Amino acid sequence: MSQFNQDGKEFSGVRSLSMRANGFILLEVLLAMSLVATSWMVLGNSFQHMILRLGQLQEKRVQMKKELDQHELTLIFQGTRKQCHSPFKRICK
C-alpha cells in the first residue's frame, strides 16, 4: 500500500520521519554525553582545587608550628638566662 503525492510519485514521508527521529535521538545522545563529560571535568577540577588548598593549608600549619616552637624556645632560653644566679656564668649560657 504505497501512498502517492499530487505528482504521482511515491510518498516517502514515513522513511523521512524515521530518519529525522534517528537524527534527533543522535543529537540527544551527543548532548547527554557532553553534559556528563562536562560534569566530570568540573568535578575533577573542584577536587584538584580542594587538594591544592589542603596542601597549602598543611604547609602553612607546619610553618606556624615551627615559628611557635622557635618562639617558645626563645622564651625558655631568655627565662633561664634571667634566672641564673650562678657564680659560674658559663653554666648559664
Task: Give the topology.
Elements: H1 13-83, H2 89-92
Head-to-tail CA distance between termini: 113 Å
Say how many strands there are.
0
- Helix and strand run: HH
Uncertain runs are none
Radius of gyration: 39 Å
Measured by DSSP, the beta-strand proportion falls in under 5%
Q: Averaging pLDDT over every residue, what do you get?
A: 80
Largest sheet: none
Shape: rod-shaped
What's the helix count? 2
**Structural class assignment:** mainly alpha
Helix content: over 70%
Tell me what the structure shows.
By secondary structure, this protein is an all-alpha fold. It is built from two helices and no strands. The longest helix is centred in the middle third of the chain and has 71 residues. It is rod-shaped, with a radius of gyration of 39 Å.
List keywords for this structure.
93 residues, 0% strand
State the gist of this model:
It contains two helices and no strands. With 93 residues, the chain is mainly α. The termini are far apart.
